[in-house]
Design a protein that fits this description.
The protein has 63 residues and is mostly beta strands. It has no helices and five strands. It has one domain. Strands 1, 2, 3, 4 and 5 form a five-stranded antiparallel β-sheet that branches. The chain is globular, with a radius of gyration of 12 Å.
Amino acid sequence: MTLVGNNDDKQRAAAKCEQCDEIGIVQIWPDGSLQPLGQSNFCDCASPTLAVLATDLDHDEIP
């Protein structure tokens, strides 16, 4: 995942709905669950399957 920001409990990353290819930002919780950021629904799909798009960066590598 490409790290957008984090704190001790969660991280943010870009993700894509595997059904409709909509891309957005999600929060990644410590248990690995994904939640759309700033909205209740990621896309218009009834049950979206979200996939994180890239690989992790160490917090110190964030520009």
